[in-house]
Amino acid sequence: MTPSSPLSRWLVSDPEISRLLDEELVRQRTTLQLIASENFASTAVLAATGSVLTNKYAEGYPGRRYYGGNQVIDEVEDLARDRLKALFGAEHANVQPHSGANANVAAYQALLEPGDTILAMRLDQGGHLTHGSPASITSKIWRFVSYGLTPASDDPSAPGEIIDFDQVRDLALAERPKLIVAGATAYSRIIDAKDFRSIADEVGAYLMFDCAHTAGLIAGGAHPSPVGIADVVTFTTHKTLRGPRGGAILSTQDLAKKIDSAIFPGLQGGPLEHVIAAKAVAFKEAQAPSFSVYAHKVVENAAALAVALKVEGFRLVSGGTDNHLVLADLQAFDADLTGKEAQEVMDRGGITANRNTVPDDPRSPFVTSGLRFGTAAETTAGMGPDQMAQVASLIGRVLRERGDEVAVKTVRDDVAALCAQFDPYAALDEQG
Ligand code: DSN
């Protein structure tokens, strides 16, 4: 397949980058994209991201810029903010964070003083680096206390490995955090902000909800919204929300000035207005009824993938999923297979996913004993529950037959045949 990308056609002056863009497009079209934090942005989102807005400096906010010539830019950013507020029913929106990590750091900076205590989820049980990993700058500025999951159980009706709210409350009462953070990057169950709100209220803490992974599910009505319950909601725009790579913050009106100042000038300089335009496009797309259908299909597909992975012999953390992701423990499938090797084998078979620690993982975070799979991207491509069963079978096959290069190549061919029926960028061929 030799797709010609309209983006690369602009790059005649740089054949090396042009070739790489085309190669990446081929990779995305011919292999399975199962990384839970990825998606296929629309061609409209791609167009805005690649627009002339990249040329403009716009430090400040609409109506209060430090540079001239921002009349058009102000309209773009106002549209993005208004669409985002309408999408989530929020009082205030900041669309300038370059990433989810920046959104989180800015939220901490808005609400806290250095040294204040934050209660957040353990990285090795599903939390994010910015939830207090020793490797993150967040842990050098603020003091983190971490909660985790309930133990795993053999009882299929109550498999455990869900957020331990007794532990959250006990830690909150003992440590008196100024901020409690809800949200995760590798947790497959619904997180209801109300469960955290009551604990935050009991100890007088702010509540921040980091819904980077589930923002699209919330926007589409497939998951409960934290807006109106949490004081601040942070997220990325490129995962289930299917926009350009970037971040955003929602807050109550009384925190608006603190949040805005924390992003600029507190943490960032000039905003990426081309990305903000693309965020506005994505927020409009997410308001369409078809996006709600999409969000529900993502969840349905993850449930189908979970069932099929269990048939293949994987143990799933928490026994299954309520959202877009599944965390598979490899130890039951093959005790000798690490997450690192499994990820590499799947890459050879055309299946893109990432290794992930599982609770109480005996291996290091670089090696791991788990794999994380997500359904947001391939649902965008049009796959449904029947294809999820095929995907699980392909995963099982390639991992079982990993020592046989011919068998791995056969899986890769079967993956390409499946992907050919579900091409997210078929429309690119039709554009000039
Ligand atoms: N890197 C993201 C993820 O994969 O979940 C989190 O920042």
Gross morphology is: globular
Number of domains: 2
CATH architecture classification of the largest domain: 3-Layer(aba) Sandwich
Strand order of the largest sheet: 4-10-9-8-7-5-6
| Strand-pairing-aware structural class | alpha/beta
Overall mean pLDDT stands at 96
Largest sheet: 7 strands, mixed
CATH class of the largest domain: Alpha Beta
Radius of gyration: 22 Å
- The third-level CATH topology of the largest domain is Aspartate Aminotransferase, domain 2
- Measured as a percent range, the helix fraction is 40-55%
Bound molecules: D-serine
**What is the terminal separation in angstroms?**
18 Å
Q: Helical element count?
A: 18
Low-confidence stretches: none
**How many strand units?**
15
Q: Which percent range describes the beta-strand content?
A: 5-15%
CATH superfamily of the largest domain: Type I PLP-dependent aspartate aminotransferase-like (Major domain)
Q: What do these coordinates show?
A:
The structure is a single chain. With 432 residues, the protein is of the alpha/beta class. It has helices at 6-9, 15-30, 43-49, 71-88, 100-111, 138-141, 165-175, 193-203, 215-219, 256-263, 273-287, 289-311, 330-333, 339-348, 376-380, 385-400, 405-420, 426-430, and strands spanning 32-33, 60-61, 64-65, 92-94, 117-121, 143-147, 179-182, 206-210, 232-236, 247-251, 315-316, 325-329, 351-352, 354-356, 370-374. Strand 2 (60-61) and strand 3 form a beta hairpin. Helix 3 (43-49) runs antiparallel to helix 11 (273-287) and helix 5 packs across helix 10 (256-263). The two termini are 18 Å apart. The model has no long low-confidence stretch (mean pLDDT 96). D-serine binds next to loops.
